[in-house]
Amino acid sequence: MPHPVDGLLVVADSPVHRLPAQTKVVAVVLVVLAVVLTPAGAWAVLGVQAASVVLVAGLARLPAGLVLRRMAVEAPFVVFALLMPFVATGPTTQLGPVTVSQAGLLGGATLLVKATVGVLAAVVLAATTEARALLAGLERLRLPVVLVAILSFMLRYVVVIAEELHRTRLAREARGGGGPRDRLAAVAGGVGTRFVRTYERGERVQQAMLARGYTGRMPAFADGGATVGQWAVALSLPAAALAVLVAAAVAGRLP
Q: Are 32 and 121 in contact (CB under 8 A)?
């Protein structure tokens, strides 16, 4: 039976879901750092790092189809990585019927693997952490208060704006919608109108908050913190990613 989805959160009961948000944020940042530090062509190290993130996704009981759909945001990196062998300079090699750059082929393949691991880690974080818990975790990590407030407003009003866009599209289709050119013109005009209305709404929200005593600081999010054991569990993933990198460097197995 598929797990229910609430926004980006996949509602489930797993060891990854139960970890405090701040521990998962730090773990993801460290995993991405370890992947970035891995030299190009260190396929064994990158493979172990990728397998570790896939294992965590499995422990979180995330549906494979949902994870693959969300990883579509990686498309620009995929396109760039596929173009690199054809635009890079230097020695070339024959790859089937085409001639490609060796440096571009190595760089493109490395970029593709690193981007995939990083995006997968971010998908796991978003799918296992409630939005409010994520904000509380960022607050616990001493992120600037203004930035946390901006993120909280963004998470709230992006849903409101998305619902308005959905109602606008339904209303346009109920009136016939017109041809492709008419729809494109309507979308272009709607973007400008939506920007103005969003700006005006932001001003009204600010005035309402000031009238209710807002002083520039949002109320603190309730969060109980994390235990040493929870930090140890969360940091086991980046520790493994860094350990395999260090072990390969000590053994002289890095390119």
A: yes
